[in-house]
Structures are given as C-alpha cells and as structure tokens.
Amino acid sequence: MSDAVVVAGAVCDGGRLLAARRSAPPELAGRWELPGGKVEPGESGEQALVRELREELGVEAEPLERIPGEWPLKPGYVLRVWTVRLVSGEPRPLEDHDALRWLAPDEAGTVDWLDQDRPAVAEAVRRLRAALPR
Question: Nearest to residue 5, comparing CAs of 62, 80, 63?
Fold first, then answer.
C-alpha cells in the first residue's frame, strides 16, 4: 500500500515566501511550515492544494511547479510541495495556524521550520533568489 499524500504550497508573492506557524497539534505548535494538508480521495495533489489553501488561508491560489522529491512525515504519510502563485485574497490564519509571515529569501532562516519542510523551503528560496533581478 502506498503512503497517503500531504501537499504543501511554497506560496510566493513579490519575491517573498509565506510561512505559517502551527497552532496544533501540541507537538508541532509554534513551529513554522508551508501551508497545506491531506489529499482527499479523488483529488489530485494540485486540487487538494487549492482546496487546502482556500480553507487554511482564505485565498485562491494556482499551483505552478512541483518541487522535486517527497519527504516522510508520520508513518504512512509523505509530503509533496508545489510552488504556488496567489490569484486572489490576502492570506489569513484561519485553520491550524496562529500567525503568518512573508519572508524574503535572506529571512527564510529566521523561523523554526518543521524538519520535513526544510528541503522544500531551501529549494523555494533558491528559486526566489534566481528570479530576483541581478
């Protein structure tokens, strides 16, 4: 049996990356992550990501590219991450988060990211830096 998929979005806007601080469960509370959630039966990863970002942040978003790789979470779950463009709305912490921060590439190391998010965050930051004007 394959692992269940959890999707997350590296939401980028204006050269910055969105970080969301967990409010639950207690063992994750206070640490930062890329927002997202579980893929429901019948959904693609991209569809789940659009739904999760609407539920968690109140925004409409468009998944762009999947960041290569997947990272183990708790047993039976893997994390897959996409870069995401905001289509409409201003992100707000509606579910599972108590704070949001927009981070410039050189600020990404200033928050305590969940361990499994770190490789995808590093790649998202690399892509943000590459897109900056020289």
Answer: 80
Which phi and psi angles does 89 have, rounded to 5°?
95, 160
Q: What is the pLDDT of residues 31-78, one digit of tens each?
A: 999 999 999 999 999 999 999 999 999 999 999 999 999 999 888 999
Count of other CB atoms within 10 angstroms of residue 116? 20
- pTM of the complete model: 0.93
